[in-house]
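Re-running the complex after MR caught last week's input typo. The corrected sequence lines follow. Everything else is unchanged.
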Amino acid sequence: MGEKNIRILMAKPGLDGHDRGIKVVSRALRDAGMEVIYMGLHQTPEQIVEAAIQEDVDALGLSILSGAHIILFPKIMELLKENRVDIIVFAGGIIPDEDVPALKNINIAEIFGPGTNTEDIVKFVKEKVAK
Amino acid sequence: MAEPDIEVLTTQLLKGDRRAAAKLITIVENDPDAVKRVISRIYKNTGKAQIVGITGPPGSGKSTLINQLASYLRQKGRTVGIIAVDASSPFGGGAFLGDRIRMKDITTDKGIFIRSMATRGCKGGIARATGDAIKILDALGYDIILVETAGAGEAEVDIMNASHTTIVITVPGLGDDIQANKAGMMEIADLFVVNKADREGADIVVYEIESMFRFTDKRGWKPPVLKTAVIEAIGISELAERIDEHFNYLKENDLIGERLKRRVEMEIANIAKEVMVRELEEIRKSEAYKKLIEEIIEKKTDPHSAADEIMMMVKARYIEK
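Corrected-run output:
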């Protein structure tokens, strides 16, 4: 007790139906002692940001494999800012290397592509939230 | 968290600020020393909401039922707070809170507030902070608060003391009539829901539950047994009506006060117990405690006399605070 449990929201924005990756990562975060609020598939930016407010999470993980990250991620980041939600946002899925700088530019802290070790993601979240 | 923050947040909460509600729930979950400062500021503004507990085994449809019920209540113009509890791991302490997946229809409605919560070691189906989270949503001004317990079996009955109306949800195919006679969860229901009623065996389950009440001569409220198929939203309007019917029954028979008294009685005992345990855990880390252990081993004192001394230390620590 006393030590704050990390709460983290995991969501898939947009229309792709590939949720294996996000489930594996969610499970790894759970096993690392975090409270993972799993929103599942087909979430709009509005739904994700509203959930981040209500759940008062420390971090938000986004998974996307449809290619729509270039549209949806900026929209989510904008809405977070508009609602004064200041949390760590990271992403994963199929995101081309050439898109990464633009996404980091809008304050997405890290992009985890296929083959990432889940331990690296756990470590990343723990370090970022501790700051 | 600093005192002024709590003051600001509680003031915002009472003005209906949802973000303040979210932050305050985090505080009551994480900081046992701050809980008192939060609740004492808002307690006068609680007691207006109708509180409905929903419990049942994993996969019985609790979250989906809440999704449908909340949508229905919104159509009737009522605002809805939802607290969805899932279990924490007994090993790593982590939790997978997946109730929102079933509540997609209602997640952007400003008249609905959903909070997921992990049990954090509590065994009764709800968390230590669930009661305080209910108070926060009550003070925020929501008309009705739906509390979903972690998937529960027979013994997780704490929800009974947190709510006005307790709904026990079950499904066909879990067992025979022996299950209906088991003590515990089957006794706490004000309303039974047999969900997935489009499946084979639903009528038998209804019959088994109804039979159980033939043996009890309970004048007063006899828990109705409803059939629903929540994915298709079948039976939801009747369920909503029966929830209100039960609430009105409590009001008309002056039972609201009685339930409140029962809840408060449990609550203060639990809080006092927590405070004592917390102080005790601190004392266990102290040099004085280690010294007592040595003294017992050397037979200078005995465990019971030492425990008396420890209780005096608990008292002294608390007074000091």
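None of the earlier attempt is carried over here. Chain A is about 45% helix and 25% strand. The first helix of chain A runs from residue 20 to 31.
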